[in-house]
Write a structure and sequence with these properties.
Blueprint: H1 11-17, H2 25-33, H3 42-59
Helix pairs in contact: 1-2
């Protein structure tokens, strides 16, 4: 969107109008409306990961100064 300078997300309309995409506009919008049913535990998993990362950050504050090096 940014690359094209769009100010409104029209992905649903573009997908619904694409003859190669198997869903029409209303079907695409239904999938988007019902997206919470499709993410399962992802939200809680992300929250737990953030909690664990914060715990590690508090336990090892010196880790904040580590800079990644070259792997190979």
């Amino acid at each position: 969107m940014r690359e094209q300078g769009l100010t409104r997300n029209d992905l649903d309309e573009r997908l619904g109008a694409d003859p190669h995409f198997p869903l029409d506009l209303e079907q695409v919008r239904e999938v988007i409306r019902d997206n919470a049913a499709r993410v399962g535990m992802a939200g809680r998993q992300v929250d737990r990961f953030v909690e664990q990362a914060n715990e590690l950050g508090r336990a090892y504050p010196q880790a904040a100064t580590v800079r990644p090096g070259r792997l190979l």
